[in-house]
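Hey, I was hoping to borrow your eyes for a little while. A protein chain has come my way and I'm curious about its shape. Take your time with it, there's no hurry, and the full record follows here:
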Amino acid sequence: MILRKTIHDVRCAKKYSVALAKPLSELFNQPKPKFKFFVKNQTGLFGAPELISFEGFYAFKEQTKIDCDNFVDEICNPNRKRNLVTIFDQLSNSLCCLADMAEFIRTAHPDKSFVAAAEDCCISMNTIVEKLNTNKDLYTNLKQVILDGDKHPMTEEDRHVGELFLFDFELNGIHLEERKRQYVVNLNNFILVTGQRFMTAVEKPRIVDPTKLPDVVSKVLSKEYRYNSGGKLIVGHPSSHSEDPVLREAAFKVYNGPNAESEELLDNLLESRHKLALTCGFPSYAHRALKNSIAENPSFVMEFLNILNSELRIRSVFDYKTMKRANNNDIVSPWDVQYLTNKIKQNHLQYAMIDYASYFSLGDCMEGLNMIFNSLYNINLVFEDITPGEGWAEQLYKLAVTHNTEGLLGYIYCDFFERTGKLHNDSHYVVRGGRQLPDNSYQTPIVVVMLNVVWRENHGPVLLHPGSVENLFHEFGHAIHSMLGRTRYQHVNGTRCATDLAEFPSVLMEYYATQPQVIKHYAKHFKTRQPMPEDMLKKLYASKYLFAASEMQLQLFYSVLDQYYHTQAPQSLSTTNMLAKLQVEYYGLPYVKDTAWQLHFSHFVGYGAKYYSYLVSKALAAHTWHSFLNNDPLNRIQGERLRTECLQYGGGKPARKLVSDYLGTPVTPELLASSLIQDIDQGNKISTFSAT
């Protein structure tokens, strides 16, 4: 029963005067430290009084163990007084209240004492979860309730969440006889370690002996890359943006060359996943991974990808012809694509990135998000001071998410600015999920949005490039999903749902960062305060659809490869030979002999059999935008419908049913593929019109 994320402690509701709230533009354009570490702490991390110092993690851990033991005893008590699924969710909540907090602090806190204490908690929580996953009394009681019903009343939500808990148990083989169950445990451990080793190998540079390379290749690489102490070249990236075509080709082939260590790790990962699936009763690992998703099974995914492929092949031909013209009519190879498309897009824009950034100050973008959320959902982002001890670094911001009639919905902590040791990926962390409490009040969700914005004091306001604006809006799509989720159980609150569903609200928010009819409301020049000129708006919009077909085709190819790797293991072909075979059918450029770029594709670890999810989420977002929002993106009626018919359920309904009910039509492979093609065609039509 792998337990999803949340944290304990409930805050008292507060009343907020939105009219008196400090403008977000003022706060975010000139960031100042909100507290000093030498000030005596008045509270603990995220307001948890136990965590006023790092020692609090140890006390928190011991209390969590006691709480978990009590919930286990209650579940196994034949005279229990409550609904079984409710107790399971409280057990989940108790564990996750510490696990999620500790996992975030382990990765984000600059103080090594806090990091060490958080890591200790993570290890302890993993040990407890492993023990619970092997507790047959828990499993037997839950299975009996799912099969025969509970002696206490059950709703459809109870049954659905109970089935998810049961599925989590069975993923770990608890229903198997002891020898097989232990085999599953060993496989899971092996998969975890192998995945970590593959991730490390992905990031390793290629070390090559220049004397074994052709002279022209050795010469061009030596100008770009440094040598190690043994006189060998360290090729740490493929130089995709270089203007020199010889360097691009040489770097691509060397960087993506075969690597026996990485190949073995990937083979072992895929083979062990396949064995795990077979042992647990699934035809393949993909069947196991997709069971509770929108797609539900690999055949749905492949039907969707094949329909999409036939449509994209026609449209991508035009993209490659455009690249060829920009390449002096020379053949376009895989190492040319990134350089050529970036060059063409920049020429099309006719404005430098700094020109666009001048209209996208961080403060104005935050005001834009506030305007969008207020228009759609009747909510506001209200600045609230961080109490000393509540945060983990300087330049943090705390936003209370308030509904104009319902009051406080939750908190978003904004950790936007680069600092030494901080992870570089933009992300959204759930620190505490929402859930209904015994007194019918609601546990306030808490999330963190983390970016890596570079800003120097006295250099003016914080300015974002258009791509960074998209990232900001994407992560806030996740955050608002967490705020608007109003499930009874934290196990399925907000983003705690299938991957292909979880990305839908965040991809939808990207439209609000790229569509002229919305951008014009918040993009203002940081000096003149004039809105972005119409010509700039049109060119920015058009640039989003340049090469949309060929770029999506590449994502489709990745998705197909991921599906084949996870449905047909063990393979008669090597992963490289399988890649070469599929590239003929699913990508517009030929395979490059003696390369193995899949060995640099880290997503096989975190998104095994689920890489397609981005395309499904994008299709759902496209359908939602064009069917309900395109003509009036700030329409309150459509916003409330999105909230009440989709977002508030989180993972509390079966994913495909949830989305089908919201869209008002069954979700089929044909619907998803046609939604993506419609979006590309409509974007290209407007882009062509804008360019004339």
In short: The beta strands are 206-208, 233-235, 379-384, 396-403, 407-417, 427-432, 446-453.
